[in-house]
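Supplementary Text 2. Reproducibility record for the structural model of the 141-residue chain.

All settings were left at their defaults, and a single model was retained for analysis rather than an ensemble. We include the record here because the model underlies the residue-level annotations in Supplementary Table 4.
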Amino acid sequence: MALLEMVLALAVTAAALAIAWPRLALVVADAHLIHTGEDLVWQMRIAQAMAATRTKTAEVDLNRYVGIYHVYWGPNLVRTGHFDPGVTYRDGYLQMQTGRVSYNQAGDSQTAGIVRLQAGSRALDLHLYMGSGLQWLEVSP
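Retained model, structure tokens:
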């Protein structure tokens, strides 16, 4: 009897997991996408603040199709960031056809446009504005 109960419990658990798995995978992908987007925004804000408070420029360099980015203060590498698993950046959304966002000593940026991060069919847009260097996130429909 105990063996039959255990097999029945395993069958019910497997059926529930099979039903819930696709939804759980979407939730995990969304969490990775949001975490990567928020991390990238904060690194851009830190680069902007470093440039505005010091005498050197700062830059965030998004490497195309690789899933990493670099933050520079002047010629010095400050941080290498990694996108979460499954999150990609497709080049071509930034104006001026560049993957580099640089900030001058006033904290202003000469790069504007949208950085689109994707995880499967989901997308998250990071909007950049020329001049102020303002950044904000928006989930794409």
